[in-house]
């Protein structure tokens, strides 16, 4: 069985229970000239994503988890086939390109693409393009016959930013603002990675795709069991990591400790429930894993600067 998604068409939004993909596929324009495509799913079937870039856009691609086989075709050019695995990143400027990306059955995928109009990149770098690779500088200058494609490996900072986008803690208008800031951060990190420097610091250890998948599984386990979370030792055993790698990996991938992530999630869920106004403070405390409503009230006060009993009043 094979599932096909046209990335230019309406796609299942996140949290869409009717979607055959467990998780979500989403595309949005976060500001004029800047588009973000997110893929974060598990699928029992092969997934094929069809894409088409008609406008002149610079594309920044990141594959955090998964395996992908991509076939690209540019008008008047030969078809290109590329393979990528977790940790891949790349920048391309290939006008009038279309193609297919195949994700094998039974795979977990976490990926994103940023589509940026060259004029907007020019505005972001003060219009000069100084420091950019020559081909991208030509694109910023409006030379439509210029093409550029450069693959690479994500740095730790890129991995963290990609994960923060896929696990965005904000909702409503603030979500769009957060995603825009992180997309700009990612583009700066990737462009900076390709810019020559006189001296580069020693490369830190980069998490591999299997480690990233296990860390995501650990995060899901602890958030799902927020009322009775496992110990660090048990969590590490459940996902096949040692405790040291679990703690170090959380800080590197999520920018927080294991229980720091849990605390952020609990406070976010508490605020959401209080916003809905259907539960008492005591019920909210119990729902997010606090047995003592006074401890919850103190934690909420420390986190948001207001008591939950006064929140929303």
Q: Would you write up a description of this structure?
A:
- By secondary structure, the chain is of the alpha+beta class.
- It folds into 2 domains: 193 residues, Jelly Rolls (Sandwich), CATH 2.60.120.10; 96 residues, Arc Repressor Mutant, subunit A.
- It contains 10 helices and 11 strands.
- The strands form 2 sheets. A 6-stranded antiparallel beta sheet has the order 2-3-10-5-8-11.
- Helix 6 packs across helix 7.
Q: Classify the secondary structure makeup into a structural class.
A: alpha+beta
List the helices and strands in order: EEEEEEEEEEHHEHHHHHHHH
Number of helices: 10
Under the CATH scheme, the architecture of the largest domain is: Sandwich
- Going by CATH, what is the homologous superfamily of the largest domain? Jelly Rolls
Q: Indicate how many domains the architecture comprises.
A: 2
The major β-sheet equals:
6 strands, antiparallel
Look up the CATH topology of the largest domain: Jelly Rolls
- Number of strand elements: 11
At the first level of CATH, what is the class of the largest domain? Mainly Beta
Helix proportion range: 25-40%
- Structural Rg: 21 Å
Strand order of the largest sheet: 2-3-10-5-8-11
Strand content: 25-35%
**Overall pLDDT metric:** 81
Shape: globular
The low-confidence parts are 7-22
**End-to-end separation:** 52 Å
């Amino acid at each position: 069985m094979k599932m096909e998604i046209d990335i230019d068409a309406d796609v299942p939004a996140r949290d869409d229970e009717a979607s055959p993909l467990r998780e979500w596929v989403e595309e949005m324009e976060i500001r004029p000239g800047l588009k973000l495509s997110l893929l974060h799913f598990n699928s029992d079937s092969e997934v094929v994503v069809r894409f088409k870039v008609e406008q002149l856009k610079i594309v920044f691609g990141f594959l955090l988890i998964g395996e992908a086989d991509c076939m690209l075709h540019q008008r008047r050019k030969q078809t290109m086939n590329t393979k990528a695995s977790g940790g891949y990143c790349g920048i391309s400027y290939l006008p009038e390109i279309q193609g297919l990306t195949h994700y094998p059955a039974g795979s977990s995928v976490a990926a994103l693409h940023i589509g940026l109009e060259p004029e907007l990149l020019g505005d972001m770098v003060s219009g000069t393009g100084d420091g950019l690779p020559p081909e991208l500088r030509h694109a910023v200058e409006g030379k439509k016959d210029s093409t550029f494609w450069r693959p690479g490996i994500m740095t730790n900072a890129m991995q963290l930013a990609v994960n923060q986008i896929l696990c965005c803690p904000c909702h409503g208008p603030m979500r769009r603002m957060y995603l825009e800031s992180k997309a700009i951060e990612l583009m700066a990190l990737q462009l900076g990675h390709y810019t020559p420097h006189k001296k580069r610091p020693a490369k830190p250890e980069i998490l591999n795709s299997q480690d990233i998948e296990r860390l995501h599984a650990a995060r899901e386990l602890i958030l799902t069991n927020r009322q009775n979370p496992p110990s660090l030792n048990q969590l590490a055993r459940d996902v096949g990591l040692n405790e040291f790698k679990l703690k170090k990996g959380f800080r590197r991938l999520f920018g927080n400790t294991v229980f720091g992530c849990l605390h952020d999630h609990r406070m976010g869920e508490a605020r959401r429930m209080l916003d809905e106004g259907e539960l008492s403070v005591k019920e909210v405390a119990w729902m997010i894993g606090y047995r003592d409503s006074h401890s919850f009230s103190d934690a909420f006060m420390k986190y948001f600067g207001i008591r939950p009993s006064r929140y929303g009043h």
